[in-house]
Amino acid sequence: MLKSRTALLPLVLAIAAATGCSSAHAIIPAPTTDTPLAAQHGKQVAIFAGGCFWGQQAVFERVKGVLDTTAGYDGGTKATATYDQVTTETTQHAESVKVVFDPAKISYGTLLRIFFSVHDPTTLNRQGPDVGTSYRSAIFVQNDEQRHIAEAYIAQLNAAKAFPHTIVTQVVPDKGFYDAESYHQDYALHNPDNPYIMVCDRPKIETLKKEFPSLYIEYHGK
To answer: Is residue 218 part of a domain?
Structure first.
C-alpha cells in the first residue's frame, strides 16, 4: 500500500476524487439487536476490515470506550502476513484493525454502527481507489454473539435500504490477526499532510466527529 500509493499517487487521488473513498448515505440507524453495556469494566476484541487500515485505525482510536487499536492483517496465515505479500492480493488477508474496547463503556453494536458509517460496505473488494481482496469489507467475529449481532445488523440495514446497494460485508470467524509493520501503526496521525490521508481518511474522522459527537475523543498517540 505504501509503495504503490507513493508511486501512483496522482492516479490514486484522481480516482478518489471521481469515486470517493466512502459511500454517500444518510445517518444509519442504531442496531436493534445488541448487547447492553456491561456492569463491570473489562476488555473485549472486535476486528474490522473496511479498506485501507490507516483510515480505519484513525477512526476507532478516537472512539470513547476504545482502549487500544492495532492495524494488521486477518483472513490468511501467519506466514504471509506481511505488507509485501498481502499487496500481491494472493494471501487471502484483508487489511484490518483490531479494536480492544471496554464493554461497560461501548457496545459491540455501536462499534458496528461506526464501522458501517465510515466505509462503503456495498463495493466488493474495493474501497474508493483501492482495489483487491485485501481491501474487502469484512467483520472477523470472536464468538457466536458477535456473529449474531453483526448478521442481524446487516439484515436490518439492508431492509431499511440504508445504502444505495446491498451490503457485501463478510461475517467470518477470526482465525488469526497479525500486527502490521510498525510504520503502518498510527500512520494517519504521523502523516496528516499525506495527500491520501487528507482525501480518503480525514473525511472518515470528520464523519465520526459529526455523526457520533458524544463518542468522539481527541487522539494524540499512545
So the answer is: no
Spatial CA neighbour of 112 closest among 77, 142, 79, 73: 142
- Residue 200 annotated to the active site: no
Read off the pLDDT band of 18 (50, 70, 90): very low
| Cell numbers found for residue 194 | 499525506
Q: Which residue has the higher pLDDT, 25 or 2?
A: 25
Q: How confident is the model at residue 1 (pLDDT cuts 50, 70, 90)?
A: very low
What's the structural domain count of the chain?
1
Helix (H, G, I), strand (E, B) or coil at 126: strand
Range of the domain at 178: 2-7+40-211
- Using the structure block, give the residue that is written with the C-alpha cell 464501522: 115
Bridge partners, 12 (sequence order): none
DSSP letter for 216, please: B
Catalytic entry in 28, 46, 52, 66: 52
CATH of residue 109's domain is: 3.30.1060.10
Across the chain, mean pLDDT equals 92
Predicted TM-score of the model (pTM) = 0.92
Spell 2-32 as b/e; 16+ CB within 10 A means b: beebeeeeeebbebbeeebbbbebeebeebe
Residue 32 lies in a domain: no
Helix (H) or strand (E) holding 15: helix 9-19
Cα→Cα distances 38→103, 111, 113, 214, 221, Å: 5, 15, 18, 19, 27
pLDDT at residue 148 greater than cutoff 50: yes
